[in-house]
Write a structure and sequence with these properties.
Elements: E1 2-10, E2 15-19, H1 25-31, E3 33-38, E4 42-52, E5 59-62, H2 68-72, E6 78-80, H3 96-99, E7 103-106, E8 111-119, E9 126-130, E10 134-138, E11 144-148, E12 153-156
Parallel strand pairs: 7-12
Antiparallel strand pairs: 1-2, 1-6, 2-5, 3-4, 3-6, 4-5, 7-8, 8-9, 9-10, 11-12
Length: 165
């Protein structure tokens, strides 16, 4: 299961930004073992040496990748983990990576497209839905009515005028 994408090094001790993740530093440390995928064929096993929450994304370190130059070798790679290792987020909560790829439909059953990305903003996340045209939907209770992860479907109510933007 895709966890996120490693950004550039942060500081001199080998920390790196982890982009596109919804796991906290504590959750990342519980997973501990990861696979880094690059260029679709190259893989590398990594063991988390440390993680800390930082705004707007966590900073992570891996065993054997101490120092800025060594950590830079991992930049741009996608971090993956076995699904069984991911902590349960709790009832009524889903991780971002669980939502990406879900079909997005209206309460009337009209297909809008697939959730391609989730932008984390200061106010609330924004769902990027790709269908006939791209829609940017605020991810709050007034818009998102149901999430059925088992079926891979997110049901929404469109705010007035959102399709004209």
């Amino acid at each position: 299961m895709r966890i996120g994408r490693l950004g550039r090094p942060h500081g001199l001790r080998g920390e790196m930004a982890l982009d596109q993740t919804s796991l906290t530093a504590r959750e990342l440390m519980r997973v501990r073992r990861f696979v880094l995928k690059r260029r679709a064929v190259e893989t590398l096993e990594l063991s988390m040496a440390g993680a800390r929450d930082a705004h707007p994304r966590p900073l992570v370190r891996f065993a054997g990748y101490d120092g800025r130059e060594r950590a830079a070798e991992l930049t741009g790679g996608e971090l993956w983990a076995e699904r069984e290792r991911i902590p349960d987020p709790g009832p009524g909560i889903a991780y971002t990576f669980q939502l990406v790829g879900c079909r997005v439909i209206t309460e009337e059953g009209r297909e809008l497209g697939r959730l391609e990305n989730v932008w984390l903003t200061g106010a609330h996340p924004v769902y990027v839905v790709q269908g006939e045209k791209e829609l940017l939907l605020p991810a709050h209770a007034g818009v998102v009515k149901r999430v059925d992860l088992a079926a891979g479907v997110i049901t929404v109510v469109l705010p007035a005028g959102i399709e004209e933007i």
